[in-house]
Every structure is written in C-alpha cells, then in structure tokens.
Amino acid sequence: MKFRPLHDRVVVKRLEEEELTAGGIIIPDTAQEKPMEGSVIAVGPGLRSDDGKITPLDVKSGDRILFGKWSGTEVKIDGDELLIMKESDIMGIIESGKKKK
C-alpha cells in the first residue's frame, strides 16, 4: 500500500461478519450492519505534544481492534475499502490466544 497515515491516525480494514445467524438464517448484505471489528493495516508515527516530543501509538500493524460504530472516514485505496481513524476512536485490541492457568 502506498499510503502512510500522519500523526495519531490509523488505517483499518473492516473484518467481515458471518452471514448466518445461530439458527442458520442467511442475512442479506443490505440488512447487515457494518462490523465494528477490524485489522490495523498502517499506523502513523504518533501524537506530537506541545513540547515537540512524539508519543508512539499503542496499536501496531496486524492488531485486531474494536472501534465505534461511526468511527473513522471511509476511503478507497488501491481498490480496498478502508477506514482512517484517530487512535482515540479505537476502544481496544482484541487479543487471541490461550488463557494462562
């Protein structure tokens, strides 16, 4: 991708939700809500403070995140539909893995 976000901006690709309900009913595309889960594609260098120091972001490329329903700006880059949002719009990182005993 030939796009580099600035400051505390993050580029996110929405993760597709399943088209079946638990009961096996198929949900058409027009009735589905947009997923609020995504994968981080690129991150900016960080937020610049008043004294000129850069505070790095907590998220990194490849992180699976949860964000607000109306967060970000939808853009199309290299044919991919992506979101550009500030790090503050991200609610958290979804960590997958085995729980420790």
Task: Give a quick rundown of the structure.
With 101 residues, the protein is mostly beta strands.
Low-pLDDT runs of 5+ residues are: none
Helix-and-strand structural type = mainly beta
Q: Count the E strands.
A: 8
How confident is the prediction overall: mean pLDDT? 82
Largest β sheet strand count, sense and barrel closure: 6 strands, antiparallel
Fraction in helix = under 10%
Looking at the overall shape, the CATH architecture of the domain at 9-17 and 33-93 is: Roll
Cα-based radius of gyration, to the nearest Å: 16 Å
Count of DSSP-assigned helices: 0
| Helix and strand sequence | EEEEEEEE
Description:
By secondary structure, the protein is mainly β. It has a domain at 9-17 and 33-93: GroES chaperonin (10 Kd Chaperonin, Protein Cpn10, Chain O, Roll), CATH 2.30.33.40. The protein is built from no helices and eight strands. Strands 6-7-1-2-5-8 form a six-stranded antiparallel beta sheet, with no helix packed on it. A two-stranded antiparallel sheet has the order 3-4. Strand 3 (47-48) and strand 4 form a beta hairpin. The radius of gyration is 16 Å and the shape is globular. The relative contact order is 0.28. The model has no long low-confidence stretch (mean pLDDT 82).
